[in-house]
Write a structure and sequence with these properties.
The chain has 5 helices and 11 strands. It is α+β, with helices and mostly antiparallel strands. Helix 4 crosses helix 5. It holds the Pfam family HSP70.
Length: 178
């Protein structure tokens, strides 16, 4: 008889706006802990940057945003659920936030990673961001990275004004996270 998966915690992710917050309810406890990020006691900026050999996120990416502006992609939640045309329009309206070049033909951002040109898709950016944010919870709950996210139930809070198509696109992007 197969054993049912043992859940360590339920994780709520509020990724609305330009930052992210986590709430964690550990199994067997009657309280919810707020986990904000790995660096300080604040919310995590929703930003992913590409440096020489690193993908960085959150506060570190924000601190280095000036020097990595052309290799940074903000708002992973908002861009991951959009189709190529809608994403192109969204970037036009917020062009002051997007320093990396967006290729309308394939729907990818052009960045420099490991000293070479690299195409990165919005779904990959969101998947990386959420996985890194969940690292905070893995450490807190003492779950090894080999267990991945199998020990967590994850609930993602999405803004009500997002269309159902966008929400489905975000869900599909998160399936890359595991």
């Amino acid at each position: 008889m197969a054993e049912s998966a043992e859940f360590v915690a339920t994780v709520g992710i509020d990724a609305g706006g330009d930052s992210c917050r986590l709430c964690v309810a550990k199994s067997g406890q009657d309280r919810v802990n707020l986990h904000v990020n790995r660096v300080s006691n604040r919310q995590t900026p929703a930003l992913v940057s590409f440096d020489k050999r690193l993908r960085i996120y959150g506060e570190e990416a924000e601190a280095r945003a000036a020097s990595l502006f052309k290799n940074s992609v903000p708002l992973p939640l908002y861009i991951s659920g959009l189709d190529k045309d809608s994403l192109g329009e969204y970037i036009k309206t917020k062009k002051y936030l997007f320093g990396s070049t967006f290729d309308k033909n394939n729907g990818a951002f052009s960045v420099t990673f490991d000293d070479a040109p690299y195409q990165v898709y919005p779904a990959e950016i969101l998947s990386f961001f959420v996985d890194k944010v969940l690292d905070t919870v893995r450490k807190e709950c003492e779950v090894s990275t080999s267990d991945g996210n199998n020990k967590f139930r994850v609930a993602l809070s999405l803004p009500i004004y997002l269309s159902e198509e966008t929400k489905k696109g975000i869900y599909n992007s998160l399936s890359l996270t595991g």
